[in-house]
Amino acid sequence: MADGTGEENGETVTLRLILARRGDTLSFSTLSAPPGRPLLMRHAYWLSRVPPT
Q: Is the pLDDT assigned to residue 15 strictly greater than 90?
């Protein structure tokens, strides 16, 4: 997990990146919020390992 600040639509926001690995699956998601507001999920991705054919 990593926290920081960034900009969305010209406003400063709090950002959080969550990176996780479970078995053969890697996931990462980003959350953001203006100051004083709860974090909302913006993007989530899951990448799964596929055995070679």
A: yes
